[in-house]
Amino acid sequence: MQCDDQRKKMIINDEHAETKFLKLLERPEDIARLRLLTITAAKANKNIIAQNLISQAHQSFLENAQAFLCIDGDVFITSESLSARDAKRLIDALVAEKIIALSSRQELMDMATNVTRIKSIMLQKEDHERKKTEAAQKISEEKEKLQRRKDILTSAQHFAQHQSCRERRAAHSRPHVMLIEDDHFSRRLVENIIPKTIQVLSLSTAERAISSYLATAPHLLLLDINLPDVTGHELLQEIIKLDAEACIVMLSGNADKENISQAMKLGAKGFIAKPFTREKILQYLEKFSLIKKQGE
User: Fold this and answer.
1) So what's the pLDDT on residue 99?
2) 11: helix, strand or coil
3) How does the average pLDDT of the chain come out, rounded?
4) How far apart are CA 155 and CA 223, in angstroms?
5) What CATH class is the domain 156-287?
6) Own/partner pairs, 173-177, CB within 8 angstroms, 24+ separation
7) What architecture (CATH level 2) is domain 6-130?
8) How far apart are CA 290 and CA 130, in angstroms?
9) What span, in angstroms and rounded, lies between the C-alpha atoms of 57 and 94?
10) Looking at the chain, which runs of residues are DSSP E strands?
């Protein structure tokens, strides 16, 4: 953003100002002729500050200047000819417009003789900007994750149930097993163990878990506990609400008693600890009569 009169130009750096200022400090030939005015904690938003600074440039006492609007509210202004008188007029104007407080601290200095101190201050500001950006991104990601979780656990509301799960299961011509496992190796291992006589539906995420379960009505669901968007325990609860006869066996690398006990309390019919063995998978298929017992 800048005013149209190039002689009285005021360049406003309001995005990533800290990084841009540090790049300016890397040019000794530029900073040798620049003066710097620092203003602490401006109260207005960046757009209002920018408009006021451009207005001051039009009034001629700021020429060929740049303003750096920092994320913490501080303002750094550089100019080739910024006198103490110019600085005072600028400060008075910003105070009059209530852009900064009367008690706000200001400092006017030659950049070349103070470059080390200035760089240290701006590096701290850049780190503050980075941390604030990362925090905002983390909050945004958490909100997205919560929304995905909500969408997954309420997906049954959008599924038209013309038949009960019991009726759909009874209509299957052969046994159906559904597998929800995000680890590719574990998923392929289980798929290869299950006999070809059984129809297998595999999912790598929980995104379509509930709607797919209701549409498929499997005889057995093998459900990983540690899924990325929702836990297997949460899915277990929701599926049991929708299908009281659901036959669900939990899968997990964490085979402690509390983990197993919680799964059983929520309605699981069994628990298989990782790494999976062929014998354990086949044992549950036999238990729920999906394959014949060996020797029969």
Assistant:
1) 86
2) strand
3) 86
4) 17
5) alpha beta
6) 174/198, 174/199, 175/199, 175/219, 175/220, 175/290, 175/291, 176/200, 176/201, 176/216, 176/217, 176/218, 176/219, 176/220, 177/201, 177/218, 177/219, 177/220, 177/221, 177/222, 177/285, 177/290
7) 2-Layer Sandwich (3.30)
8) 56
9) 13
10) 10-13, 35-39, 65-69, 75-79, 106-110, 176-180, 199-203, 220-224, 248-252, 270-273
- Tokens, residue 178: 């559904």
* Domain extent listing, the chain: 6-130, 156-287
What confidence category does residue 69 fall into, taking pLDDT thresholds of 50, 70 and 90? very high
The two structure tokens encoding residue 197? 């006589």
DSSP type of residue 162: S
Count of C-beta atoms within a 10 Å radius of residue 167: 11
Residue type, 173: S
Average pLDDT (229-245) is 92
Tokens for 216, please give them. 């498929």
pLDDT mean over 201-209: 91
Determine the pLDDT at residue 5.
Answer: 47
C-alpha–C-alpha distance, residues 277 and 284, integer Å? 11
Q: 239-271, pLDDT tens digit by residue?
A: 999 999 999 999 988 877 888 889 999 999 999
3-class SS of residue 178: strand
